[in-house]
Amino acid sequence: MAALGWLTPRRRSATARSVLAGEASAEAARKSSQEAPRATPEEPEFPVIGDDRAAAFFDLDNTVMQGAALFHFGRGLYKRKFFETRDLAKFAWQQAWFRLAGVEDPEHMQDARDSALSIVKGHRVAELESIGEEIYDEYMADRIWPGTRALAQAHLDAGQKVWLVTAAPVEIAQVIARRLGLTGALGTVAESVDGVYTGKLVGEPLHGPAKAEAVRALAVAEGLDLSRCAAYSDSHNDIPMLSLVGHPYAINPDAKLRRHAREKDWRLRDYRTGRKAAKVGIPAAAGVGAVAGGTAAAIALSRRRR
Fold this sequence. Notes:
two-stranded antiparallel ribbon; 6-stranded parallel β-sheet; alpha/beta; 51% helix
């Protein structure tokens, strides 16, 4: 029978600490069973339906659209023989450099602006607007982020105005806003006389702090309360604009914006694939590939023609 001793439960004396632990556990279980389950606090509904003093401001490149709108527009103009292959290579390289560096060198930025403005100089504004509609269908329509588009639609459905805010030419921005059913767009304004582009800007590109100033001015004109407004961007350059509003969102953020958003407890949304999202160390990763690829192709083609 001794061999069957393992079937008989062994009695072990409980220590004072194990008794205390058991009693505490039983007491906690008894109390939890008597208490009503606590509801998880829900986030306030946003956007607030019917709040006409609220609006939403969306950056364009890599926030609403994959890649840079100006580059896609440039592809369309090149297809229509607005400029030569060597100009495309130079223009695309300037855009790639700016995206990769993530900083604004005044001399380099001036050179990039001059290149872009020289392309449209002498052309009629109406001509570029008409071509912009075609280029949207060819290069941009399939590059709209569905997730960001849904966010914009939520504001529209709540009865709020939704604006694009971008450094891209205002004519391009307005085409995109119109095709997406948004309220309108704030963009860089190129000078025109009698409907013809002069090759100069009115002021400076709508970039960085200039975006914040444009949003602030529009809010005053529209009677908006910025603490009730929302702003969306992928770039740390737009921190001034995001900091203006009560509801800032980091969309497909670059590394600097991601860090800042986490420090400030801003909401983040990333609609890129896992592979692209892992590349947030490269500013506007989704757009860099398109620009750099176009640059390489243009340079290679240029070399073959020499």
